[in-house]
User: Which sequence fits this backbone?
DNA sequence: CCATGAACACGCTGTTCATCG
DNA sequence: CGATGAACAGCGTGTTCATGG
């Protein structure tokens, strides 16, 4: 379990980070895939982090495989006949557990970086 | 330059992190390779991070290739006839530059994690 | 072109093997 | 066995290619 979230190593994996963020975004009904990617890019621009669409989709697929989310196809409203996928939490318990575990992991990494900043300056 | 320190991505690489820490340890004359590794393991135990000896040596070799450090062989004092390597900074300018760039990178990652903690809880 | 996805390739890092006193 | 190092293998992630509106 935690083995999935942190691979016995240094800092957390990007995949876990994205899955974690996506859970929150889906809870808040923040649109479809590329839409969420766009949001993330903007949010993280100050931190020079720009996730790729491939990583985003792989994260969504993993969340589905783990039974945390689900999706259904739908036509993009208003504009045209483009098809998109709308995501939704199907197991809030699992979602909460994932976020809880990630909180521990984020705190760990946060502390590690703080230590580095304190030790070396 | 920065491309070496951060690979266009998410969080910083372990290698950079270790090189950065090793510079400080060498500045403080903290013994030889495995000795420093042992120190790091103890320091990071609360953060469940335990670097490997291979990564440590690769970091030291890179620092040497970049002309930041140097070493000479020496017999382990007092105890027995074991040979060890003693490291030393040979270009303090470069060392300072590396640490300065890493400071920027650490701050970036630190901010990114803080944002994650704020956004999702 | 947009949205989603798969295939492929590269690079980081851990596990294992090697050498020398 | 301690210290250093090389060779090898796995896997996370970015780049490229593919498909369907």
Assistant:
């Amino acid at each position: 379990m935690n083995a999935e979230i942190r691979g016995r190593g240094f800092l957390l994996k990007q995949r876990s980070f994205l899955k974690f963020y996506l859970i929150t975004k889906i809870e808040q009904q923040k649109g479809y895939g590329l839409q969420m990617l766009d949001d993330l890019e903007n949010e993280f621009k100050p931190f020079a982090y720009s996730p790729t669409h491939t990583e985003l989709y792989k994260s969504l697929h993993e969340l589905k495989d783990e039974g945390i989310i689900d999706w259904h196809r739908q036509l993009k409203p208003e504009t045209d006949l483009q098809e998109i996928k709308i995501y939704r939490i199907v197991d809030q318990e699992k979602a909460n557990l994932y976020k809880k575990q990630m909180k521990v992991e984020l705190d760990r990494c946060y502390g590690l970086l703080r230590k580095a900043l304190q030790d070396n300056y």
Q: What stands out?
A: The first helix of chain A runs from residue 2 to 5. Strands of chain A lie at 69-75, 83-89. The first strand of chain A starts at residue 69 and ends at 75.
